[in-house]
Write a structure and sequence with these properties.
- By secondary structure, this protein is mostly helical.
- It folds into 3 domains: 158 residues, Rossmann fold, CATH 3.40.50; 115 residues, Glutamyl-tRNA Synthetase, domain 2; 98 residues, Orthogonal Bundle (Arc Repressor Mutant, subunit A).
- Helix content is 46%, strand content 11%.
- The protein has a 3-stranded parallel β-sheet. A 3-stranded antiparallel β-sheet has the order 4-5-8. Strands 6-7 form a two-stranded antiparallel ribbon.
- Helix 6 links the parallel strand 9 and strand 10.
- Helix 5 packs across helix 6 and helix 8 packs across helix 10.
- The longest helix is centred in the last third of the chain and has 18 residues.
- The radius of gyration is 31 Å and the shape is elongated.
């Protein structure tokens, strides 16, 4: 088995492209096959080196390796010219000077369903665009593993332009020749490419008849369902993160993204949701890919990512947080935050005030540092200062004594302390936060809060 992922480098790798790459990778790894990475860079204006590097960077971060490539489509131009010449010499392609206006006039005269034949506008041997000669009779049938058979009657198909007048080949011709030369056995790509497939099959058929390239059967095709947002509309920027880089910047883990993307249009067969990459490789087959649109929901991805974060060893989580934030020495802060964060980006808003000093939340101070809150805080200070040890268990015991003595609910003690330590009402667990700060820093932050009698008027 040989599959290929062939993105066009016209921008960042979007989520739909990432799923296509993943499905090809899973298929190859499941069957012991090979994955070819081809960069379809025929759009000269938009296919920049920076865009190519963005795609490679995204694939590396997702840990989707390839066995061959990256192969630039433009680097194969001589081979494309050889193929073009073979089709022209064998009569399977011809030159035509028909313009877009000519095609439009033909359709108006004979109907939009009638396929355009450009031989009436034949050019001289070296003039005009090159069109593929489509048989007048019969049909090209796309046998699709996911969608079943789709029939394209030749009478409705135009003779497609496969090369411009200057000799530069067009997408469907280059793709077909590249797949032929690379020995691609399975083409797995988005449903939006289905209309291209009969043109590519016709190119492959013509190449075979002209004796060009290896005499092999055409690839097996599988067109993946479209991705929609939670509202059922085509996935777009308005639904949240649109590219792999944006997901990385939002603090998602590559293994969680692989797990989630694999479930968009594919099922493991037993409603399993959390699947390691090894399990995905073991279970993946095209037979379980649905033809119905799949819904990308970032809320579900956040939930799944949170599960993955909680499964990480603390040391590994700290390593990833340090790489994400550019900080060092985060292991203890990672340990006490692990149960409360769903992405790496959640870490600093939660634990940052412990590391960098209290923030400023006037509403939190007004709500929890009134006279009662400050009085509670004074009792907390005395209890913490007197504690023999300053570990989490001792801190919990000290705060429990304040709650009991004052006859209040725990939050009447915890929240004033949390606001004093962080400036807000959200933090890791209060015992863990106090222990992380240590006795000296905890008392110092409490002392920065004026006593009840000193409350500003």
């Amino acid at each position: 088995m040989r599959v290929r992922f062939a993105p066009s480098p016209t921008g960042a790798l979007h989520i739909g492209g990432a799923r296509t790459a993943l499905f090809n990778w899973l298929l190859a790894r499941h069957d012991g096959g090979e994955l070819v990475l081809r960069i379809e860079d025929t759009d000269r204006e938009r296919s920049t080196p920076e865009n190519i590097e963005q795609i490679l960077d995204a694939l590396r971060w997702l840990e989707l390796d390839w066995d061959e490539g990256p192969i630039l489509q433009t680097a194969r131009s001589e081979r494309h010219q050889d193929a073009l010449r073979a089709l022209l010499e064998s009569g399977h392609a011809y030159r035509s000077r028909a313009t877009a206006e000519d095609v439009k006039a033909f359709k108006e005269l004979y109907g939009a369903e009638r396929g355009f034949r450009g031989e009436g506008w034949a050019g001289y041997q070296e003039e005009g665009a090159v069109r593929l000669r489509v048989p007048n009779d019969g049909a090209t049938v796309v046998h699709d593993v996911i969608r079943g058979d789709t029939r394209f009657d030749h009478v409705h198909l135009d003779d497609p332009v496969i090369a411009r007048a200057d000799g530069s080949v067009l997408y469907n011709f280059a793709v077909a020749i590249d797949d032929l030369d690379a020995g691609i056995t399975h083409v797995v790509r988005g449903e939006d490419h289905l209309s291209n497939t009969p043109k590519q099959l016709l190119v492959l058929e013509a190449a075979r008849a002209a004796g060009f390239g290896p005499d092999v059967p055409p690839p097996i095709y599988a067109h993946l369902p479209l991705l929609h947002g939670p509202d059922g509309k085509k996935l777009s920027k308005r639904h949240g993160a649109a590219s792999v880089q944006e997901l990385r910047e939002a603090g998602y883990l590559p293994e969680a993204i692989r797990n989630y993307l694999a479930l968009l249009g594919w099922g493991a067969g037993d409603d399993a949701t959390v699947l390691s990459t090894e399990e995905l490789v073991e279970r993946f087959t095209l037979k379980r890919v649905s033809r119905n649109p799949a819904r990308f929901d970032e809320v579900k991805l956040r939930w799944l990512n949170g599960l993955y974060i909680r499964k990480l060893p603390v040391g590994e989580l700290a390593r990833r947080l340090e790489a994400f934030t550019g900080r060092e020495g985060l292991e203890q802060a990672a340990r006490i935050s692990q149960e409360k964060i769903q992405t790496l980006a959640d870490f600093l808003p939660l634990a940052g005030p412990l590391l960098d000093g209290p923030g400023e939340d006037p509403k939190a101070r007004e709500r929890w540092l009134d006279d009662d809150g400050r009085a509670s805080l004074a009792d907390v200070r005395d209890a913490l200062a007197a504690a023999e040890r300053f570990d989490e268990a001792s801190i919990e015991q000290a705060l429990a004594s304040v709650i009991e003595r004052r006859g209040v609910k725990p939050r009447e003690v915890y929240q004033p302390l949390r606001v004093a330590l962080t400036g807000g009402t959200v933090s890791p667990g209060i015992f863990e936060s106090v222990a992380l700060l240590g006795r000296e820093e905890t008392l110092r932050r409490i002392d920065r809060v004026p006593a009840a009698s000193q409350r500003p008027q």
